[in-house]
Amino acid sequence: MKKSSSPTKKFDPHKNYQSTMKSIGYVGRKKAKPEDYKRIGFKSGLEVHQQIKTKKKLFCRCPAGIFHDSNDYHAEIIRHMRPTLSEMGEYDGTALMEFKTRKDITYRIHNQTTCTYEIDDTPPFPINREALEYALEISLLSKLNIVGEVHITRKQYLDGSIPTGFQRTAILGVEGSIQLKNKKVGLIQLSIEEDSCREISDIGHQRIYKTDRLGMPLIETVTHPECFTPDELREAGEYIRFLNRSTGKVRTGMGAARQDTNVSCEGGTRVEIKGVSHLKWIPELSHNECFRQWALLNIRKLLLEKVKTPAKWELKHVTIDPREVGIENELVVSYLDEGYKVVAICLPQFKGILSHFTQPGKCFANELSDRLKVIAGIEKPNITSSEDLDIPLDTKDLDALSRTLNASEDDAIVLIWGIESDIPTALEAIQERCIMAFEGVPRETRRPMADGTTLFERVLPGADRMYPDTDSAPIPLEQSYIHNLSKNIPMDIADRYRQMKDWNIPSDTYTYLLKKNLVPVIEQLVKLGVSGRFAGTFLGHKLKYVEGKIEKHNDFTYNRIVEMFEFLNTQKLQPSLAKLMLPTIYQHPNMDFNSVLTSLSFKHRTKDEMLAPIDYLLEKFREIRVSKSDSPKIALNWVMGQLNRQALGNVDLKDLQKSIEKKLAKQA
Amino acid sequence: MEDFFQGYKGKALEVLKKYNVRVWGKAVIETSRGEFKGTVLPRSENDDDQHIVLKIETGYNIGIDIVTIKRMKETGYFKATYKIPEKEFPVTPNLPKVKLLGTGGTIASRLDYRTGAVIPAFSPGELYGAVPELADICNLTTEKLFAVFSENMGPEQYKALAIAIGKEIENGIDGIIIGHGTDTLSHTAAALTFMVQNSPVPIILVGSQRSSDRPSSDAALNLMHATTAAGHSDIAEVMVCMFGPTSDEYGFLHRGTRVRKMHSSYRSTFRTIGDTPIATVSRKGVVPIKEEYNHRRKDRKVKILPFFEEKVTIVYYYPNMQPDIIDSLVESGYKGIIIAGTGLGHINKPLYPAIERAYKKGVHVFMTVQTLWGFVHMYVYDTGRDLMAKGIIPLENMIPETAYIKLGWVLGQTNDREEVKRLMLKPINDEITQREPYNGYLIYQGGVPEVEAFIRRFRK
Questions:
Q1: 3-state SS class at B91
Q2: Rounded mean pLDDT of chain A?
Q3: Which end of chain A is less congested by CB atoms within 10 angstroms, N or C?
Q4: pLDDT in the model for residue B189
């Protein structure tokens, strides 16, 4: 074979990465304009998961909301999952993929939070009515059409995250809507479901879960794909979160709310980014996903120009002994000691594709690597190639390999390695992914990373994974029951925004006030005669500040704040004193308010008592002032400064200021 | 005639007829709670007549309350066929021939809209479609003898099974498995032990505690274990093959006369009582626990004894049981009574005259223990001696259900008092054992530190 046939002669993967990124018109998230999203047809929707605050789990009587360290467990159970038919008589694609991965799934169970139900050794108990009721309230608030009868359905998950192999879930309502600033976004449905296990680790063919969270009640709100920029998507996410929290019946804190984002670009496919725990990550993730799809469509175009009959496309592969072939690539050589098999693969006509930009810092080769890890269970790094961005095969290695594989100038060369029994699945996974490249964007769920990129997680499941739960009877929802529930639901979030605007509360506090469901507290304070603006600012600025600085006592609730204002009212003290008291009651909510005041060295003063020393202080100021030309303003500030602390709570500071000004005017 | 309204009745049926919407029809339904779209599904017969079941586009099922319906319209029709993909079971030379005899139960099952529960599905093709690994273990053929749930298995089925097994052995099979619901699996296992004696090949009863329509089902692994045991093991006895631990790890082979279902829903529900299981089985093969068992043979000398007297019963004794319970059984023509007595095998004094009356009428009365573990010891207390004087025969450590099956089988052959006694007390396959090993009874209580430490170290 002639040397000139080397597939990577003078080929620079980095250059190719940069130029392909440019050619698809990638722009960073910060520089992206609405026109950019319009150009690539950004379209997305959300699935918002929210835990409900119940004492017990959804289908058994284990306590909800107790969590354990990964090593705090009493027993281990091992299971394997097999795909089964859906009700419509089809196998689900995801299920078949998971079956290929042949995972040993281990559950670590803790007696406090796990009974025989969680590990699928007992059928479900009747649904937790408390959870159902809370979820229905949220459904009503989301303006959904409420079903007449709740049917528990099994939704297959073969990743092992639920020991039964399916999640028990049920639709409560369909077709609702939420009102954002500039548009209405439709809701497809809201379901109540049991939460899954928490993953401890997933290495090779061994995946470990813990079952503390498993079975906790959760709701899932699904929007239509009607958000056309990442910002709209975030706004929708926030709205749903605020709405859920406004009921006061949902859990907050780490992992209590998680969202999945569905994204597609024009000509792309719905891809789901799963389990984003922070709303603020959503814009970056969805932005990158949309451009990833845009890049995949370009790859498709490039490939179809070169390959006329994609159906016949097939990779070539040879199992090699790298030492015999003379491969010196350090990565490959390091795996030989572990007894791994090394396979050389030729991807015909894929030159320039492997290093084609897909996401910031990632290229098409990453799509292959991800699937090798997930489907074949081969840990990363699991691949190198003629176009690797980190350690590419050098010309000498490539020459040897292209001779072995009989590769041509337009081909790409890949090396993979793993234990022998994983190799057939690995080759299948690569062949499958390459064929998909001719079709465009594969239907996938993807795992979000902190840097805003995503990894392949699973094939996107479809409706084929649904199956009626033969262990549960349907639950009728009578008209009268729904009617009664609808009488007790809180106000709309859109109306909450209006309310805050009417009170003239600074808008920088809105997110915090809604996130913490504090608007009902403001309402209570307004009833006590506090101005809405003061109450809003007090909670939105002062409370937020205190929360960030001081550790909260477990007994502290927002009701204590209301009680504090009631106390100030009855004591005829000024509301401004609350600002001084707040840090103390936040830390010591059980301390009575008089003691709080004592601890702050507060003394009761009448207005006259407060005003009495003014003349004396003005006299004093004249004695200490530096220049005779000092303006009255400086005198005023100095006197105010002397009186400020004792005045707080006793007199309104504006009144005090006026009184000083009056005296100053007289003296002038 | 095709049933267009599968499962619907009463008012719900009227509504469907009124708007001309069929089951499997795609429908748009306008209600006072808003609009719903989806495919109308069959309704379970036991559910009310107030709702219509709809599969919506996202795959979920919901119910629509008929009182809220304003209008509905059928816009299409698509009938789903639920079918496990059938593939021809491949024949591999040198692998043992195994026959699967089907009786019903959850070993293979699919959805039944009539009851909303699962019904059995069964054929080698279906099984191979669902569990392709079976082809690496044996050459499997199947025969569906009946399709009944476990609780409906009885003497007729026992006899038919025994005869079918006899034929298979005669025809040169290497092993037999019997798919069976789990509730009365051990009764059938006992019956077959008595009816099929001196078998040259393993006869394995297998079921599943989680139906095969769920991904975590134990059915597939149980089937693999059972075919492994039937095709490859040296133990030629009637055995039950079910999960050892609840984990997907290994199964136990239990002797058919000593096995009992001990938990209503656990996978590892079957336990050998008063002894250890014969062996463990995994996909790698069978590893004996007991040293003595009947070995596989090349000959075909099996004895089929398909007899059963149906007028036999078990009386589970409780304090203050009245004598008329026994009297009414005798009056109803019962020929044999197994008593599950308290402690070492006791019942209260007021029953004694009734026992005497039964004995005089020729009824055979035997004593077992409701403690399940341990022997009947009727010499320890006077009451026991009195009972034996009145004709009750202690059955050593035979478990009550096995005793019931055996008495039915014995009385199906003879009514002679001495012969009945002789046959009952002569063990056919360890229904009475000479000695109870110290590790026959191993029920540890959770919560005890050393037990907890053990559980943490080994998978449950």
A1: coil
A2: 90
A3: C
A4: 98
All domains of chain A, ordered by start, with CATH?
A: 3-25+303-455 (3.30.1360.30), 51-261 (no CATH), 492-587 (no CATH), 607-667 (no CATH)
Q: Residue A386 and residue A412: Cα distance in Å, rounded? A: 6
Q: Do B215 and A121 touch (CB under 8 A)?
A: no
What is the C-alpha separation between A382 and A369, in angstroms, rounded?
A: 6
CB contact under 8 A, A148 and B221: no
State which fold the B10-77 domain adopts.
SH3 type barrels. (2.30.30)
Interatomic CA distance for residues B262 and B234, integer angstroms: 27
Rounded to an integer, the average pLDDT of B404-427 is 97
DSSP state letter for B136: G
Interface contact A77-B246, CB threshold 8 A: yes
Write out chain A residues lying below 8 Å of B36, CB-based. 145, 147, 174
Q: Which residue in A72, A78, A85, A480 has the most chain B C-beta atoms within 10 A of its own C-beta, making it the best mutation to test that interface? A: A85
The string of pLDDT tens digits covering residues A269-300 is 999 999 998 999 999 999 999 999 999 999 99
Smallest Cα distance from B212 to chain A, Å:
8
Q: Please tell me whether the interface predicted TM-score (ipTM) of this complex is above 0.85.
A: yes
Please state the length of chain A. 668
A375: buried, middle or exposed (CB in 10 Å: 19+, 13-18, 0-12)? buried
Q: What is the phi/psi pair of residue A631, to 5°?
A: -75, 160
Burial class of residue B291 in the structure, from the number of CB atoms within 10 Å of its CB (0-12 exposed, 13-18 middle, 19+ buried): exposed
Interface-testing mutation among A147, A150, A220, with chain B (most B C-beta atoms within 10 A): A147
- What's the CA gap between B201 and B290, in Å, rounded? 18
Residues of chain B contacting residue A123, judged by C-beta atoms under 8 Å apart? 265
* No. of helices (H) and no. of strands (E), chain B: 11, 23
Average pLDDT in the B279-298 region?
96
Q: Which residues of A286-324 are buried (b: 16+ CB within 10 A; e: fewer)?
A: bbbbbbbbbbbbbbbebbeeebeeeeebebebeebebee
| Domain ranges (residues) in chain B | 10-77, 97-304, 312-425
Residue A44 β-bridge partners: A227, A263
Domain B312-425: CATH class, spelled out: alpha beta
Matching CATH topology for B97-304 and B312-425? yes
Among A536, A545, A517, smallest CA distance to A575 is for A536
For A397-423, give the secondary structure using H, E and C.
HHHHHHHHHCCCCCCEEEEEEECHHHH
Count how many pairs of residues, chain A against chain B, have C-beta atoms within 8 Å.
183
Helices B155-170, B185-195: axis angle to 10 degrees equals 50
B409 burial level (CB within 10 Å; 0-12, 13-18, 19+)? buried
Q: How confident is the model at residue A52 (pLDDT cuts 50, 70, 90)?
A: very high
Is the distance from CB of B337 to CB of B315 less than 8 angstroms?
yes
**CATH (residue range B97-304):** 3.40.50.1170
Please report how many Cα atoms fall inside a 13 Å half-sphere around the Cα of residue B154, on the Cβ side: 7
Mean pLDDT of A603-631: 77
- pLDDT tens digit string along B311-365? 999 999 999 999 999 999 999 999 999 999 999 999 998 999 999 999 999 999 9
A541 DSSP 8-state letter: I
A27-48: b (≥16 Cβ within 10 Å) or e:
eebeebeeebbeebebbbbbbb
Instruction: Give the whole-number percent of chain A exceeding pLDDT 70.
Output: 95
Interface test with B, best of A59, A82, A260, A272 (most B CBs within 10 A): A82
H helix and E strand count, chain A: 24, 23
Q: Who among B51, B65, B456 is closest to A75 (CB)? A: B456
Residue B183 annotated among the catalytic residues of the structure = yes
Token duo for residue A337: 């000691």
